[in-house]
């Protein structure tokens, strides 16, 4: 039992795990945002077959456990398509797709939140559909969607912990390793929990700040 | 490279066993989380400052820490303090506590939506505060929060897949075994994805019916 006790190096391990978690979270959120918004645009233009496909895929992704999606990508894809998939690649693909599915819903509802009269007025003024989307809809939809998006991202941060199951050395996996070595579950999981909690709070705070900025134009001005 | 679903036929019974265990865990955990959610919602809407704060801390913590961390905390931690329960009981407890945080928000919203006039009428009629709460506030709050509670249940079904990580052989756990027995992970997980999506779809249909039935006298106001 030489290494059974906690060592200062464990803090480095925890920091590494946190770094992996945050890094993957940022990358997958970014890809998810881009893909989700792209799907939303597909729906805005009512592209025939693509639109139904996107809706179907997003429904399936929203209504099935992320863990099963991870297993499908990590165990299923290599066996079926004869690919080499590393745990990190599987994690990025799955989490991005999952985030995209939820972003798609937010994008659709925030595009629909803008009154038809605005769009019609803009079209009458001779703006193209793309210009309407870019100049009229996008700024308002961004302000509208930032609240739900923040909630989604806080949730997705917690979902990243599942990738520890397929062997990515994220915060949860480091926790499991430390737990096995020291056999002090309360200390280890409390520390890991606090780190996740603080990160979630950070995301929520940043989201709230951004929302205030974007909504400044419609905020109540004191008389 | 051929999708051959017939290889799953001999394993259907085994998968059904797992599905049954998933449902069992979810039904028990739903009962637990609604009970816990009611208590916490009462605390959060009560006049007592301390109860209020304590309830808020509970909800905040358990919503912002990943479920897998909570699960490991209980699974490895409980034996440490001399509580020996099996994986199923641990899973149900963890799901109830995590679900309780979400359920309490749903029920709290239901309580806050009650018209003040109803409470004043109860007071004028001479009902005690306890009777007012158990016979008037709670029934109204519960039936208006059927739909949000339903989404808590759906989330719980999806989250219950994580229980496979603590050796509980529910639907996902059994599917992992089938995948490693047949060497056909792709087929297994694709089917699993569809099964979960179908399951949650059925549950959401059932909730819509229940919601409509319970609120049939309020058509037009709610729904």
From TrEMBL, chain A:
Its main location: membrane. It is found in: Cell inner membrane; Cell membrane. The keyword Cell membrane applies. PROSITE patterns: ABC_TM1 (PS50928). Keywords: Amino-acid transport, Cell membrane, Membrane, Transmembrane, Transmembrane helix, Transport. GO terms for biological process: amino acid transport. CDD domains: TM_PBP2. It comes from the Bacteria. The chain crosses the membrane at residues 20-45, 66-85, 91-111, 132-154, 186-208. Residues 18-207 form the ABC transmembrane type-1 domain. Gene3D superfamilies: MetI-like (1.10.3720.10). Belongs to the binding-protein-dependent transport system permease family. HisMQ subfamily. This is Amino acid ABC transporter permease. It comes from Devosia nanyangense.
TrEMBL record, chain B:
Residues 19-207 form the ABC transmembrane type-1 domain. One of its GO terms (biological process) is amino acid transport. It is found in: Cell inner membrane; Cell membrane. One of its GO terms (cellular component) is ATP-binding cassette (ABC) transporter complex. Coiled coil: none annotated. Keywords: Amino-acid transport, Cell membrane, Membrane, Transmembrane, Transmembrane helix, Transport. Its main location: membrane. It holds the Pfam family BPD_transp_1. One of its GO terms (molecular function) is transmembrane transporter activity. It comes from the Bacteria. PROSITE patterns: ABC_TM1. The chain crosses the membrane at residues 20-43, 55-75, 81-103, 149-168, 188-210. CDD domains: TM_PBP2. It is a multi-pass membrane protein. Belongs to the binding-protein-dependent transport system permease family. HisMQ subfamily. NCBIfam families: HEQRo_perm_3TM. Part of the binding-protein-dependent transport system for glutamine; probably responsible for the translocation of the substrate across the membrane. This is Amino acid ABC transporter permease. It comes from Devosia nanyangense.
């Amino acid at each position: 039992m030489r290494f059974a006790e906690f060592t200062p190096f464990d803090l480095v391990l925890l920091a590494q795990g946190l770094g992996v978690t945050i890094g993957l979270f940022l990358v997958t959120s970014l890809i998810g945002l881009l893909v989700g918004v792209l799907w939303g645009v597909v729906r805005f233009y009512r592209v025939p077959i693509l639109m139904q496909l996107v809706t179907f895929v997003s429904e399936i992704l929203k209504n099935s456990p992320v863990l099963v999606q991870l297993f499908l990508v990590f165990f299923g894809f290599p066996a079926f398509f004869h690919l080499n998939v590393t745990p990190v690649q599987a994690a990025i693909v799955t989490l991005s797709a999952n985030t995209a599915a939820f972003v798609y819903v937010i994008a659709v509802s925030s595009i629909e939140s803008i009154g038809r009269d605005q769009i019609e007025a803009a079209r009458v003024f001779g703006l193209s559909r793309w210009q309407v989307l870019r100049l009229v809809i996008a700024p308002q939809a961004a302000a509208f969607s930032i609240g739900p998006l923040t909630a989604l991202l806080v949730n997705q941060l917690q979902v990243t912990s599942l990738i520890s199951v397929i062997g990515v050395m994220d915060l949860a996996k480091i926790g499991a390793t430390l737990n096995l070595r020291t056999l002090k579950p309360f200390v280890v999981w409390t520390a890991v929990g606090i780190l996740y909690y603080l990160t979630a709070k950070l995301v929520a705070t940043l989201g709230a700040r951004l929302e205030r900025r974007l909504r400044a134009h419609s905020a109540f001005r004191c008389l | 490279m051929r999708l051959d679903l017939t290889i799953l036929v001999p394993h259907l019974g085994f998968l059904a066993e797992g599905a049954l265990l998933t449902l069992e865990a979810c039904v028990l955990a739903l009962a637990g989380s609604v009970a816990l959610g009611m208590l916490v919602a009462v605390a959060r809407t009560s006049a007592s400052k301390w109860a209020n704060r304590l309830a808020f801390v509970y909800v905040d913590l358990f919503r912002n820490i990943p479920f897998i961390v909570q699960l490991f905390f209980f699974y490895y931690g409980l034996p440490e303090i001399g509580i020996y329960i099996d994986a199923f009981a641990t899973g149900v407890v963890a799901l109830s506590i995590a679900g309780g945080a979400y359920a309490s928000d749903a029920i709290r919203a239901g309580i806050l939506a009650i018209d003040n006039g109803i409470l004043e009428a109860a007071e004028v009629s001479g009902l005690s505060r306890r009777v007012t709460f158990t016979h008037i506030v709670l029934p109204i709050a519960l039936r208006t929060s059927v739909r949000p509670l339903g989404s808590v249940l759906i989330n719980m079904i999806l989250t219950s897949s994580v229980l496979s990580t603590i050796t509980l052989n529910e639907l996902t756990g059994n599917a992992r075994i089938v995948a490693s027995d047949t060497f056909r992970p792709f087929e297994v997980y694709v089917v699993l994805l569809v099964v979960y999506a179908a399951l949650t779809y059925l549950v959401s249909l059932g909730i819509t019916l229940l919601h409509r039935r319970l609120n049939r006298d309020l058509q037009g106001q709610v729904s």
